[in-house]
From TrEMBL:
Origin superkingdom: Bacteria
Source species: Sphingomonas aerolata
Name of this protein: DUF418 domain-containing protein
Pfam families for this protein: DUF418
Bias type Basic and acidic residues, positions: 1-14
Segments for region (Disordered): 1-24
Membrane-spanning intervals of the chain: 121-140, 146-162, 271-289, 301-321, 341-364, 376-396, 402-422
Stretches assigned to the DUF418 domain: 286-442
Length: 463
């Protein structure tokens, strides 16, 4: 367990300069065990975010979550998912991507100049982008994150040499702007609703309505009409998706491609890339400060966990309660969503480090290191199991059959199986299939699959 827990002794502000490493990959890339554990938790956790879009309408996830089922059990499952997990797996992966950027580029910079490092790192992530495109267009998963991370990494690299404070400042810009814009939207909507209520009260009292009042009422009515139109369009999309995904292979494939085209036409990719690049910079800063890899004291991680959860849990509970009202009232969630997502993720990171620092915790979390080392392959396998076995119009054809509670249970069962598979696989092989293809293309050679067997003769020669 020495490779799973860095020393937690010393001052809370101490930065680790030499994080504990495990054996290198076949291409020579080093491993840090606790980062693999975090990555394994994140990649398995992301299925809880994706399973509803695989087993039910993707459009319903954004429009009417009750479409999946809204029994008491479903409400509890959705609420727990929303408060504890929503967005945090993605956020943790983004942070770890930033840490990986530092590890890979710092290591390469020792052997070559900046231009060579940049060329190799860009090639690595353009290949990842290509894998993501295949994931979208061939495996038909509109929610792919690989292509987004591939693009975001190209941007994040340009800032990698900055000091941690500047990395954090730039990385937090998306959360700051979202907070500012959401706060403005919340305040302006609240004021408008108060003005409308005052005008309606004056009308009931028989007082005259001014021209400014009529202008405001017209503007509000037009906004309500637009929302009603959008609501009707969303309902039509949900119905069309349900029909297409329970039809034939061709109706399903055609509709998945149309969803991809629709999402891209909305300009959401720019938002996703900006978010991912920003959080990658936060991850790079946290790594340089020794936080992600376990280079701080237990007191530091205890404080970090308590403060992060103390911010995130109340904000997320309020946001979940607001969403469960299903009304048009202003929501604090508009302002706090990204802040609470970052805080909740940091709380999870701190909790993992606290657990890894104990004998029992290290034993419980050790299997997740294998999931972290096979993360790309597990991510693609989640898509194959969900989209191509459980929920397509062929194979098991279970689309639309389950509510939130059952979907979360299915995700848990799949993750248990994947966790076992990852550990069993790495007992024989040194690299997972998708990782092997990605790194072999980058290295322009076939990397070895199997672990090297140590024979008595090799031990004697080594001695």
């Amino acid at each position: 367990m020495n490779d799973l827990s860095a020393s937690r002794d010393g001052d809370a502000e101490r930065v680790a300069t030499s994080p504990p490493m495990t054996a290198a990959e076949p291409d020579g890339a080093p491993r840090i065990a606790v980062l693999d554990i975090l990555r394994g938790i994140a990649i398995l956790g992301i299925l809880f975010m994706n399973i509803n879009d695989m087993g039910g309408s993707l459009y319903a996830s954004f429009d009417d979550i009750r479409h999946f089922g809204w029994t008491t059990q479903d409400q509890i499952a959705w609420w727990l998912r929303e408060v504890i997990a929503n967005g945090t797996a993605r956020c943790m992966l983004e942070m770890l991507f930033g840490a990986g950027m530092v590890i890979l580029t710092d290591r390469a910079a020792q052997l070559a100049g900046t231009r060579v490092v940049m060329k190799r790192y860009y090639a690595r992530n353009l290949l990842l982008f290509a894998f993501g495109v295949v994931h979208i267009l061939v495996l038909l998963w509109p929610g792919d994150i690989l292509h987004t991370y591939g693009l975001a990494a190209l941007i994040a690299f340009l800032f990698r040499g900055l000091r941690p404070r500047l990395l954090l400042t730039i990385g937090l810009s998306a959360a700051a702007l979202q907070f500012a814009g959401g706060t403005y939207g919340y305040v302006s909507t609240t004021q408008t609703q108060a003005q409308v209520a005052a005008i309606e009260s004056a009308q009931r009292a028989g007082r005259p309505v001014t021209a400014a009042d009529r202008t405001l009422l017209t503007k509000v009515a037009e906004g309500a009409a637009r929302r009603a139109k959008t609501k009707a369009e969303d309902a039509a999309r949900i119905a069309a998706e349900d029909k297409a995904r329970t039809g034939s292979f061709m109706t399903w494939a055609a509709y998945q491609w149309s969803v991809i085209a629709y999402l891209q036409s909305r300009g959401l990719e720019l938002v996703f890339v900006w978010e991912a690049a920003g959080v990658m910079l936060i991850g790079a800063a946290l790594y340089r400060l020794g936080i992600l890899q376990g280079g701080r004291s237990r007191v530091f991680y205890a404080r970090m966990t308590l403060i992060a959860y103390g911010i995130a849990i109340p904000l997320r509970m309020i946001g979940a309660a607001e969403q469960m009202r299903f009304d048009t009232a202003p929501k604090t969630l508009w302002a706090t969503a990204e802040v609470s997502r970052l805080a909740m993720t940091l709380g999870h990171v701190g909790a993992v480090h606290l657990l890894v620092g104990t004998i029992l915790g290290a034993r419980l979390l050790r299997p997740f290191a294998a999931a972290g080392r096979t993360a790309l392959s597990l991510y693609v396998l989640q898509t194959i199991i969900g989209l191509w076995i459980l929920f397509p119009p062929f194979a098991l054809g279970l689309y639309g059959e389950f509510g939130w509670a059952a979907l979360m249970g299915i995700a848990l069962a799949i993750n248990i199986g994947l966790l076992w598979l990852a550990n069993a696989y790495l007992r024989t092989f040194s690299i997972a299939p998708v990782e092997w293809a990605w790194r072999s293309l980058l290295e322009r050679r076939r990397l070895p699959w199997r672990k090297t067997r140590i024979t008595p003769a090799m031990r004697t020669a080594s001695a």
